[in-house]
Amino acid sequence: MVSPVCSNTISNYTNAGDWALDYHRSCVYELPDEWQSGVKLTFAWPLPATMAAAAVAISLIATCGARTLAGITGFTAILAVIGLSLQLGIGLTEMYRRDIASLWELAHPFLIPQGNTLLQPRVWCAALAHVLLSLGLGVGLLMNFSSRGSFRFTLRRHLWGLLVLVVVMTALVTMVSVLQLTLLASDRGLSVHQALSSLRYKYNNATVAGDNFVEIIDERAVGVSVGAAVITASHLMAVVTFPFVWLKQAVSTIIFIGLWCSGVTTGTVCVHTLIAALRDARDCLPRATAALILAPLLLTAATPSVTKGGAAVVALLDGDVLTPVVLWPPFTLTLAITAIYGIHKVRKDFTFMLEATVSLLWIPVWGVFIPLSLLGVVVWACVMDGQAVAVTDGPGWRTALVWALRALVLLPVPITAIYVVKSQLAYGIIDKVASSLQSSREWGDWGPQDPIEHHNWRRWREDETRPIASLKRRFANRPLTYTHSTLSSESSSTLTRLRNKYQRNGTASIL
């Protein structure tokens, strides 16, 4: 429960972000005063310096070559897994020291949710958004490395590895989160449901942020958007007893470095995608120049998250803007590929990449199940939780800001559509639109970026009657990686120069 000191001091804040952050850090979690200026656990770790170091590290790592990037991100991911494993071991040890039956009763509703919880659209939207984002980044990185010849095995094996990795990491993170939240909720006299409840806001009729911006919050709620992973890990380290002080110091350092590395790894993959896009747009753009362009942008973007008011703005953007943005592009992309490019052509592309026959069952999954599922989740959210999706609660400036950002994100869609329709050679607007909705016979930039593999891919695509046996015979006489050359040492000098240029420049993606 909230202490009387907190109840007397919360009315002194006029800024909603400052009030929410101070409330959670000082009242709900009962954290030390050092949290107001920086994170102080068992060692000194100033929060602004940590965010700045993460932004700089992401910029530098993302500009490395394919092999170097794979090694560094692999190392940081290993540190993150080690930190999670330590949290899991410490949490299990602490749980066995307590009353396991009562803790299980506390965590049981969270592990096995009730029907009303599963009927909440935001639960499904958030889960689907995270899965799509994780798989999208993972597959994109795998294709990028495969196109540069950084992998020794086929893309098919790496896709299975990615699937297994997603399942294992999801289970590990879930177990760690359940253990830490259960211990925190037990020590605070809450249920896990209350500990996971989002902040509940009620606004008056104010139109601007300031003195009239009033926030009334459930005093027992713990907002997961306010650094929940760091705070729950800090609580776990505070309640566990170690035989030596230096051991607690070492374990705490490893755990929080692992948390830092997990954020750096995810950010590196995202920034690497941006750098690859910049280098695709500008063929002669060096990696160092791309880093100099992105580093100030990352530092500027990370600055609001270390301030109290900025953290509230970041939470608003995360819940009201990013979730719809993550959901809509996969739906429109799969629908466009299904209706325009064609399922049969996509199946042949995956056959070429995976070096094996793709089952016919994949066609209804890609063409029917995936787009209808994405559309169903979006429609479901709008019907059952329409008030939250429409952002009708709160002051007018909040509604205007959220919808302006949503419109800004979707603005490239009509611009691109107008450009594509206008560039068609047909006469009349109706014929131009009809022509733009047809799959072009020109290959353009579609296909493998490796010039030799692009040539092989075009030959494979142009012969619609070629049996799968011919593809298998061709694969049997070449290395395991589909991006390696199938030509002998007496290959054309022109293709050799193209391949050397490709390996030197490191083109971004396979497709």
TrEMBL record:
It is found in: Membrane. GO terms for biological process: amino acid import across plasma membrane. GO terms for cellular component: plasma membrane. The keyword Thylakoid does not apply. PROSITE patterns: NA_NEUROTRAN_SYMP_3. Signal peptide: none annotated. The chain crosses the membrane at residues 43-62, 69-90, 127-147, 159-183, 254-276, 326-344, 356-380, 400-421. Na(+) binds at residue 134. The keyword Glycosyltransferase does not apply. It comes from the Eukaryota. Unusual broad substrate spectrum amino acid:sodium cotransporter that promotes absorption of the D isomers of essential amino acids. Neutral amino acids are the preferred substrates, especially methionine and phenylalanine. Belongs to the sodium:neurotransmitter symporter (SNF) (TC 2.A.22) family. This is Sodium-dependent nutrient amino acid transporter 1.
